[in-house]
Amino acid sequence: MTVTARAEAAPELRPTQRSRAALTTGFVVLVGLLAVVCFFSITMGARGVGLSTIWKAFDDYDPGNASETVIRELRVPRTLIGIFAGAALGLSGAILQGVTRNPLADPGIMGINAGAATFIVFGIMVLGTQSVSTYVWFAFAGAGVATVTVYGIASFGREGATPVKLALAGAAVTAILSSITSAIVMTNVSALNELRFWQVGALAGRYFPVFWQTVPFLALGIVLALGTGRALNGLALGEDLALALGQRVRLTRAIMFVTVAILSGAATAACGPIVFIGLVVPHLARMICGPDYRWILSYSLLLTPIVLLLADIVGRLIISPGELQVGVVIGVLGAPAFILLVRYRNLAEL
Predict the structure, then answer these.
(1) Structure pTM?
(2) Residue 65: inside a domain
(3) What is the per-residue pLDDT for 341?
(4) Beta strands of the chain (E only): which ranges?
(5) Given Cys at both, which of 18, 261, 344, 350 links 143, Cβ 3.0 to 4.6 Å?
(6) Is residue 54 part of a domain?
(7) What is the pLDDT of residue 190?
(8) Which pLDDT score is estimated for 151?
(9) How confident is the model at residue 10, as a pLDDT?
(10) For the domain that residue 232 is a member of, what is the CATH number?
(11) Please, what sign has the CA dihedral across residues 208, 210, 211, 216?
């Protein structure tokens, strides 16, 4: 069978017009669902607000009105960060799973988020960096170092970087980096109090300055990620066939790893190292739309913010008037999903 025939024999990568129409309809539905979740993210919490209050907060803002201030200064930036950071984590997870052919790949599992967090804490605590737009570069460096380290460790041996070896290497690197982060933070009590919520992943306390300083990097990473769908489809056919079709595999992988570093680094700088969500949601997207990465990425773009914001809402309501940080809620929900993927590998074949 020729290369062209084999490429044409991959019907799963060439959806029919009917399936494309169904997927487009599903995408539109997800846009509407995300809008609904954003509405609840703005209105629900310890202080409930109604539509009239939301309208006044933007049309006739009264700084003396506590409810309107909560909406404009707390919940709107929190929701916007949830949208962009969630999209970044979902896309980075989908890209990692595609480029490594590893169903267990995720920025949290592979230590990328932990690397970004360690470098951020080092920049803040040791070098005195205060601006998000400055220490986000430390996040990119940490994410890149962690990615290279994990992949390098997993590559040792005859079998190369297998899914299990990548997961084990990621767990080991994450443990080391998390210990370093804790050691740095615990030397300063005030910093420990300030960063303890951020360390587990939090949307609380992330205001407009954080959003405006990270959104350019998040937007850049999202645009780059959405452009990798065709290349990921080529890699899905196998490295030999991708090379035969003219794809520059090494360059493609390098670009994708850089994209993941941008996405994970910016998301970690914005709301801390949130784990598991980038692992589970791409599999959910794959279950819905099949193996075409152009659709997997598009669906992950919307599904991940929906899941993240829903988890944030649950965290606000479950111990109201207190609050459970979104990273804790995602961890509680994501750990069983991770175990399920490990136990039933056929659920996550790539």
Answers:
(1) 0.86
(2) no
(3) 66
(4) none
(5) 261
(6) no
(7) 66
(8) 82
(9) 44
(10) 1.10.3470.10
(11) positive
Is position 328 within any domain?
yes
Structure tokens that stand for 139 in this block: 């996040």
349 CB-near residues (< 8 Å, 6+ apart): 103
From CA 140, how far away is CA 202, in angstroms rounded?
Answer: 19
Residue 329, in any domain of the structure = yes
Say how far apart CA 33 and CA 79 lie, in whole Å.
14
Domain total of the chain: 1
Residue 272 is encoded by which pair of tokens? 């801390």
Contact between residue 108 and residue 146 where contact means Cβ atoms under 8 Å apart: no
For 246, the domain range is: 81-348
Distance CA 89, CA 141 (A): 17
DSSP-derived letter for residue 157 is S
47: left (phi over 0), alpha (psi -120 to 50) or beta: beta
- Write the CA distances from 121 to 57, 103, 265, 312, integer angstroms: 35, 30, 13, 24
Rounded Cα distance between 74 and 333, Å, is 25
Radius of gyration of the chain (CA): 21
Exposed e or buried b per residue across 250-289, where buried means at least 16 C-beta atoms within 10 angstroms of its C-beta: eebbebbbbbbbbbbbbbbbbbbbbbbbbbbbbbbbbeeb
Which one-letter amino acid corresponds to residue 198? W
